[in-house]
Design the sequence.
């Protein structure tokens, strides 16, 4: 709240005067000192020199609110004094801009400041409980350094994993050729301009979708991930990683339509603006990351966890509402591990308790993110433990690693094991660059992302959707998403077994690398690699052939014994010559129990099959 009060003896450095007898004020001043990095001086009004130096300011004004005195002698109080003090740090100037340019923000800020000033004793106790004492070096430079390398490692995993199977999935002789996908879009966008085509269908495959190009995209992704690991041009490299992965997601549908793919795109997009603008990254010679982008990463983690829980409740599925879902989950999930088999054997009472704990973690713990440093760190620990359990009992590719990586955004440098070492370095090394993302980019970008994702969160919770124009414009980029795995629990496990024959009487099964087939083969650990065909077969079994048109293309390739496609399988019973006929049988698989496995050696049992796809031959396919 500003007025025309001036002092005759302006301070040589901007000065914020506060109540030194208020513990709440003292703690927050220590936090602001860290943020402004000595650009603002802080002194208590109880200091005798304050009254002598600034006789123009009544003591009642100091007692009522903090006072900010500029080098020109202007005096500001209340919330505006706080924002002007923080504006000394470039990354915090957006608050003052909002105060000056958005009248409702100024009015709300002053109202909240008045409420805080009137209840300082009570709020001081809450502040101490949730935030604790201020840490002198609780920055996020080291957190960012580790986060970017973790993200680079996940990109590396994703690209290497895809590289090993992309020809069979989307190559020229793959199940759904990428070039065919691009060709199907071209007539629809024939009249569109070049930039409009890229906006509607954002992929580099507009230039080429050949097998060599697909290989080049994956290889380039691997190379760029290694650059980020080495700290070379992190921001440009992260932008190219995001662009290439987005390009592949567009042309490799449905094999890159999983929630961890869009989670990687959203995390990767935010990481571009989280990264330092340095050609050679030097973690202790760079400004701290944008606080806005840091909070967007936390907001992403909140949405991921909370939406995963709320969709289960809102779906109306009785298994979730009765807390019985885990009695079948380990058995019916796409690719369980052998530890998942053991988890399935737990008593129903234990499964019910575990389901209730899961709801607590997904619906309550996410709010700890906004409840202060201590609870934020507690939330990080709980989430990491939760993701570890999921990782041990199911193969969810790099999803668990990516979620754990997002938990890193809940920590600060002081919480890292090398916090004292970091403090030693930051005291002795000055920044050789102040280049960072300008607030003119981060503030509007953050506002747009927060608005879009908030609308998606409201819609996920069953609320009304606001203006969808902005959301629709950004939707093709797959980088601002809603989440929610296992909205409805799969209560049974239908499994497709593909068989081939030369005479229509003797049928030999194809064996996949990781999905259930042979009853005696133990469920294996395969994550963070994702066998995308095995995963897609799980979804196909939940529907019909008509709902999974790619499955017919898959059968067609098997009838040709296409090497790129058969390489995706563990065993091809027709390795020397293709079969004359292909069919698909649908079985219902169940985990065995301890007694059955000791007696038979089987991890699975299955019921009598029904026909998923009747026997077909090449004669059943029209000329392509």
Sequence:
């Amino acid at each position: 709240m500003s007025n025309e009060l001036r002092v005759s003896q302006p301070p040589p450095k901007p000065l914020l005067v506060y109540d030194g007898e208020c513990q709440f004020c003292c703690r927050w001043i220590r936090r602001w000192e860290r943020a402004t990095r000595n650009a603002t001086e802080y002194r208590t009004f109880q200091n005798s020199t304050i009254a002598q130096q600034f006789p123009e300011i009544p003591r009642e004004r100091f007692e009522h609110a903090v006072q900010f005195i500029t080098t020109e002698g202007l005096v500001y109080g209340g919330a505006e004094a706080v924002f002007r003090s923080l504006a000394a740090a470039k990354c915090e100037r957006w608050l003052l801009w909002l105060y000056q340019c958005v009248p409702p923000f100024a009015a709300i800020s002053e109202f909240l400041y008045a409420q805080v000033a009137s209840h300082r004793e009570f709020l001081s106790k809450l502040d101490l409980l949730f935030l604790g004492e201020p840490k002198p070096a609780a920055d996020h430079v080291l957190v960012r350094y580790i986060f970017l390398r973790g993200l680079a490692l996940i990109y590396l995993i994703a690209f290497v994993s895809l590289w090993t199977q992309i020809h069979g999935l989307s190559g020229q002789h793959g199940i759904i050729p990428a070039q065919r996908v691009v060709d199907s879009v071209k007539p629809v966008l024939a009249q569109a301009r070049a930039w409009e085509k890229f906006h509607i269908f954002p992929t580099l495959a507009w230039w080429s979708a050949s097998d060599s190009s697909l290989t080049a995209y994956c290889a380039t992704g691997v190379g760029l991930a290694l650059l980020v690991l080495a700290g070379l041009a992190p921001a440009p490299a992260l932008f190219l990683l995001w662009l290439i992965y987005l390009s592949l997601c567009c042309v490799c549908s449905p094999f890159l339509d999983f929630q961890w793919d869009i989670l990687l795109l959203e995390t990767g997009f935010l990481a571009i603006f989280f990264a330092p603008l340095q050609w050679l990254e030097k973690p202790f010679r760079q400004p701290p990351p944008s606080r806005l982008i840091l909070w967007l990463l936390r907001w992403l983690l909140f949405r991921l966890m909370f939406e995963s829980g709320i969709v289960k409740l809102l779906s109306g599925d009785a298994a979730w509402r009765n807390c019985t879902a885990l009695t079948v989950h380990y058995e019916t999930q796409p690719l369980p591990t052998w530890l998942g088999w053991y988890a399935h054997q737990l008593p129903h009472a234990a499964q019910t308790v575990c389901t209730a704990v899961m709801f607590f973690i997904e619906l309550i713990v996410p709010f700890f993110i906004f409840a202060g440093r201590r609870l934020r760190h507690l939330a990080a620990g709980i989430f990491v433990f939760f993701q570890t359990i999921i990782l041990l009992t199911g193969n969810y590719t790099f999803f668990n690693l990516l979620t754990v990586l997002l938990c890193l955004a809940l920590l600060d440098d002081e919480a890292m094991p090398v916090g004292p070492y970091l403090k030693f370095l930051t005291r002795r090394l000055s920044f050789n660059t102040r280049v960072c993302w300008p607030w003119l980019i981060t503030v509007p970008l953050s506002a747009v992302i927060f608005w879009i994702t908030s609308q998606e969160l409201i819609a996920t919770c069953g609320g009304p959707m606001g203006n969808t124009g902005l959301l629709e414009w950004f939707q093709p980029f797959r980088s601002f998403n809603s989440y929610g795995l296992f909205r409805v629990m799969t209560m049974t496990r239908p499994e497709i077994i593909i068989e081939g024959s030369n005479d229509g009487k003797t049928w030999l099964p194809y064996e996949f690398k990781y999905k259930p087939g042979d009853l005696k083969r133990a469920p294996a650990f395969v994550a963070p690699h994702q066998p995308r065909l095995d995963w897609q077969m799980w979804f196909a079994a939940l529907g019909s052939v008509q709902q999974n048109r790619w499955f017919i293309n898959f059968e067609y390739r098997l009838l040709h014994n296409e090497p790129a496609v058969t390489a995706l399988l563990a065993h091809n019973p027709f390795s020397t010559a293709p079969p004359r006929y292909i069919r698909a049988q649908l079985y219902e698989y169940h985990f065995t129990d301890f007694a059955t496995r000791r007696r038979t050696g089987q991890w699975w049992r299955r019921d009598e099959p029904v026909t998923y796809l009747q026997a077909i031959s090449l004669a059943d396919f029209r000329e392509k």
